Structure formats: C-alpha cells, structure tokens
Amino acid sequence: MGAEKKKESKEKDLERMTVKELKEVATESTNLVGIHAMKKAELLAAIKEAKGIKEEKAPKEKIEKEAVTVKELKEKIIAFKAQRKEARKARDKRMVHILRRKINRLKKETRSISKA
Fold first, then answer.
1. Which of 64, 84, 87, 108 could form a disulfide with 92 if both were Cys (CB 3.0 to 4.6 A apart)?
2. Residues 47, 74 within the same domain
3. Does 89 fall in a domain?
4. Which residues of 30-45 are buried (b: 16+ CB within 10 A; e: fewer)?
5. Same domain, yes or no, for 37 and 6?
6. Phi-psi group of 91: left, alpha or beta (phi > 0 → left; psi -120 to 50 → alpha; rest → beta)
7. Per-residue confidence in pLDDT tens, the chain, 116 aa
C-alpha cells in the first residue's frame, strides 16, 4: 500500500518537479528519445503521454494583451508625468518613484510596439 501511495504522489507532483528530476523520471520509467534537449513543458507532456496520465488542468498559456497603440501609451505617459509633478510638489517620494517606474515601462512598451 505504501508503494502505491508513492506512485500516486509522484504522478501528482510531476508539475512540481525540477527539470533534472523530470529527466530522471523519463529515463527510468519511459523509453523517450531526446529527453535532454526538452524543456520542462515538453518533458511533462511527454511523460504524461507515455504513462497515460490525463491532464487535469489545461496548460497555462500566455494571455494575449489587448492591442494598444503608441498614441494611447503616450497619452498615459503624459498623464503619469502630470501625476508625478503633483507628487513632487507634495514631496511624496514613494509615489514619485512608482510613477517614474510606470513611465519607464510604458516608454519601453512604445519602443517594442514600434519595432513590431
């Protein structure tokens, strides 16, 4: 009975294992080829397929961001700069720092949009 629990816990903990541990599991219990070149997501899928484990949850996919134009981002930057100016007048260093970071992130985003 103890051995069965270990097997169940190993199968349940596949997502929590490191890539190194997953490679060990794949070499020991399956006859998969090209294990060492696989990434974690690929290893998980291959091991589950080889063992016949059904995925309970769908794999996390990147959430697509809404299409934002450079013009909209620049409007946000202008608004944040005005807020930053007010925060400086109020001597709120924390808020100035937060707004500065937001402005920098938006500037980077405008550059990435214009490259694409």
1. 87
2. no
3. yes
4. eeeeebeebeeeebbe
5. yes
6. left
7. 455 545 544 555 778 888 888 888 888 877 788 888 888 888 888 888 888 777 665 555 555 556 678 899 999 999 999 999 999 999 999 999 999 999 999 999 998 887 76
Q: Do 45 and 79 fall into the same domain?
A: no
Sign of CA dihedral 73, 78, 82, 87: positive
Residue 91 token pair: 């001597």
Query: 94: domain range?
Result: 70-115
Q: DSSP letter at 1?
A: -
Residues in the chain: 116
Contact criterion met (CB below 8 Å) for 106 and 77: yes
User: How many separate domains does the chain show?
Assistant: 2
pTM attached to this predicted model: 0.44
Which two three-digit tokens encode residue 78? 């202008």
Three-state DSSP at 54 gives: coil
